[in-house]
Amino acid sequence: MSQLSKLPNVGKTLEKRLLEIGVNDAEGLKEIGSKEAFVRLYLHEGDTCFSTFCALEGAIQGIRWHNISDDKRQELKKFFESIKRDKV
């Protein structure tokens, strides 16, 4: 198994979703970053939510998504809204 679910915020369901888009391990997630992982999920699923985006960023940082800094959360929100608006 990929061990992705050992990262903070990544349960078995999100692990499965990440595997479906070619993210096979923690290093792969860190390499592509939360924005690219979110875009891949969004293109694959069509309805990926902001909470998932925060979960990805938290997993990369090694923290619960609730603890992401306000500045980072604002950056993610701005990116999320641009993706939703432009519908990639």
Can you tell me about this structure?
This protein has 88 residues and is mostly helical. It has a single domain (4-86), classed as Orthogonal Bundle (DNA polymerase, domain 1), CATH 1.10.150. It is built from four helices and no strands. Helix 2 runs antiparallel to helix 3 (50-61). The longest helix has 20 residues, at 26-45.
List the domain count as a whole number. 1
Report the order of strands and helices. HHHH
The residue fraction in helices comes out at 55-70%
Do you know the CATH architecture?
Orthogonal Bundle
Give a brief description.
The protein is mainly alpha-helical and 88 residues long.
Strand-helix topology:
Layout: H1 12-20, H2 26-45, H3 50-61, H4 70-86
Helix pairs in contact: 2-3
Observed structural traits:
single chain, 88 residues, mainly alpha, DNA polymerase, domain 1, 4 helices, 66% helix, 0% strand, globular
